[in-house]
Amino acid sequence: MTGITIALSKGRIFDDTAPLLKAAGVIALDNPETSRKLILATNRADVRLIIVRAADVPTYVQYGAADMGIAGKDVLIEHGGTGLYQPLNLNIACCRMMVAVHDDFDYESAVRQGARLRVATKYLHTAREHFAAKGMHVDLIKLYGSMELAPLVGLADAIVDLVSSGDTLRANHLKAVEEIMSVSARLVINQAALKLKRHTIQPMLEAFSAAVKQL
Length: 215
Ligand code: ADP
Ligand code: MG
What we know:
The protein is of the alpha/beta class. It folds into two domains: about 5-95 and about 185-215, 3-Layer(aba) Sandwich (D-Maltodextrin-Binding Protein, domain 2); about 95-180, Periplasmic binding protein-like II (D-Maltodextrin-Binding Protein, domain 2, 3-Layer(aba) Sandwich), CATH 3.40.190.10. The protein is built from nine helices and eleven strands. The strands form two sheets. It has a six-stranded mixed β-sheet with strand order 2-3-1-4-11-5. The chain has a five-stranded mixed β-sheet with strand order 8-7-9-6-10. The model has no long low-confidence stretch (mean pLDDT about 95).
């Protein structure tokens, strides 16, 4: 097959991606937010979209089930990036990976005293690396969402999560105490597909790249 498959997730990433796809001449024939279809045709016979969970995008591209995809840096770090070419920062879905604690928790003293903190997060790899680099011993607790709840009910002392406006933290009496990294969405391409389907992928890559500069 000479056509290409692009893996996308619904929500934040799709909202920010639709204008980029359009600039690359690709328009979905169904709205993924309302359609129940997981494979969406586009205006181009040689391009289709598949809709997967944000954290699954790198896996589909790694195994070549999708030729390319759009995934957050947060998700790419947890995945590890094996088999993926990451040529372009799309500068969309921008946010920051932060450590946050309850408003009245004195994080600085806890760190100074070498306290062994319990940290709840979806991002085990990122959190492990961050605290190891600081020489801190932490007990990591894996969660799949709503991390903000954990310090409020005594599950954890701190969380590692994505923050954009900070509204969710404030609404839950939490404060950000450390920035781990800034996060945005990246274009990822299957390394074998890039070679085999270069004639289709290369022009799309160039169109994305031009569209990103316009934003
Ligand atoms: P899911 O619920 O499947 O984790 P989200 O829509 O919450 O999906 O997140 C998808 C991606 O959007 C994340 O991997 C991240 O790169 C980005 N993202 C998450 N939270 C924010 C945020 N607050 N602001 C901007 N981008 C975000
Ligand atoms: Mg989410």
